[in-house]
Amino acid sequence: MSTQESSPISPSIISRADHNISRTHISENALKVLYRLKSAGYESYLVGGGVRDLLLGREPKDFDIATDASPEEVHKLFRNCRLIGRRFRLAHVHFSGEIIEVATFRATQEAAHDEEDGADIALDGGGRILRDNVYGTLEQDAFRRDFTVNALYYDIRDFSLRDYVGGLADLRAGVLRLIGDPETRYREDPVRMLRAVRFAAKLGFRLHPHTELPLRRLSPLLGDIPPARLFEEILKLFLYGFGLQAFEGLRHYGLFARLFPRADAALTAEEQGFPLTFIAKALASTDARVSEDKPVTPAFLFATLLWEPVRRQAAALEIQGVSAGEALRRAAGEIIAEQITHVALPRRFAAPMIEIYQMQPRFMQRTGKRPLRLLAHPRFRAAYDFLVLRAAAGEADKELADWWMRIQDNAAGEQHDLPGATPVRSRRRPRRGRHRHETSQPA
Ligand code: ATP
Ligand code: MG
User: Fold this and answer.
1) What is the residue with the minimal CA distance to atom 7 of ligand 1?
2) Ligand 1 atom closest to Cα of 64?
3) CATH assignment at residue 42
């Protein structure tokens, strides 16, 4: 080992014959970008989740590329390219249905500091990275990545892998390990705590003890992350098929309380009761939908996560004489207003979420024309699914949920329509306008 800081560390190089990544598993668009950068004389590597997931025999969510070309140089090479990000400047190469993310090699904190070129890396008083735009070498790029298994580089020149940080050994052992000193790395970017839980849940990996140890203590650092960024992370944690595992991880390390404090307080107050069962069942059913390729929505997710605090607050309002629907609307408004100071929730998701809540008491009205009207509501299916989960958790009447299942089957039969499609066709149009009026909230 050299004592000189600047001397390069040689990576272990795994030749094509010794790993299982084949070009047929890499998207054509990613290959196009890799080859075009190479023929323009730049280095280009596939890196991150794409390499990790292919090595594990999984289908990557997206493909990330690392290069020594600057974002501006990448921009010149691709017509369909946009530069994004201030905190972390990146090139997005757009293809139909796919975006390939191209990142220029970044220097690590120390390297950037040594070169007195640190003007483009900015840290706040707590060590958090505010900007990270000092470019570096491949080796430096490897060390500033988060986990060892995310820092494997696939070289398009000879299809070999480069491993500077022992990522391959960790991958084979099923271990998620932060590169460098964990506490420093979490302080630089507290979202790495969420990424640790996410990758552990997604890959079924365990956290290395040093990576795991600071989590609970550092969880308050999430309070400094902009709510919009946390919203994106929440979707990646909960809507990709491993939400229940992710939820358990977040709760275990005290991270959930930082993201959804009111929901967490309600769960902690009643650890064994239906609130926890309800969320667990909701997440399990979302995971099942994802594995069946059915659509899932942030509105439904947030509706389930916040149901317990909303339900409690609405119950208190009802005692004061407010009607059930109105109580739910007000309670939801208050809980959401508080919640978005932690995790953002775009209005287009908040509105349907409130509708799902407000439809719950309407399921109790089973006489006259009311059930048919409810069936025709554009949000009926989501609200009914919500009722089924409540019943499964023991919070709503099981007989009620069954009744609504039979009613839908009957209505579907009569209308020769599919269950799940809004069954009462003839009533749909006039009712729709009316419901929109009834349920839409003033902005
Ligand atoms: P997936 O795309 O499956 O969610 P990923 O590992 O590809 O997982 P991305 O968010 O796409 O995650 O990021 C690509 C790569 O960029 C990561 O694998 C990692 O090497 C690096 N990276 C991303 N976010 C961070 C971060 N906050 N700190 C350090 N490195 C990061
Ligand atoms: Mg990725």
Assistant:
1) 49
2) 14
3) 3.30.460.10
- CA-based Rg of the chain, rounded to a whole angstrom? 25
Helix (H) or strand (E) holding 243, with range, is helix 243-252
Domain with 18 in it: 3-173
Q: Whose CA is nearest to atom 27 of ligand 1?
A: 192
Mean pLDDT value across the chain? 89
Which ligand 1 atom minimizes the distance to the CA of 52? 6
* pTM to 2 decimal places: 0.88
What pLDDT is stored for residue 413 in this prediction? 62
**Of 173, 193, 209, which residue constitutes the final position of a domain?**
173
Q: What is the pLDDT of residues 239-250, one digit of tens each?
A: 999 999 999 999
Q: Is 168 found in the same domain as 38? A: yes
The 10 Å Cβ neighbour count of residue 402 is 12
Token pair listed for 89: 């400047």
**Does 119 share its domain with 11?**
yes
* 146 in active site: yes
Task: Give me ligand 1 centre to Cα 50, in Å.
Answer: 10
Distance CA 189, CA 185 (A): 6
User: Per the domain annotation, does 295 fall within a domain?
Assistant: yes
- Cβ contacts of 70 within 8 Å, gap of 6 or more: 104, 135
Q: Is residue 190 part of a domain?
A: no
Q: 62, 117, 397, 417: which is the annotated catalytic residue?
A: 62
Instruction: Clarify whether residues 272 and 162 are in a common domain.
Output: no
Supply the pLDDT for residue 270: 74
Nearest CA to ligand 1 atom 6: 49
- Closest approach atom of ligand 1 to CA 103: 16
Which residue in 53, 68, 141, 146 is the catalytic one? Answer: 146
In a domain, 180, yes or no: no
Domain of residue 349, CATH code: 1.10.3090.10
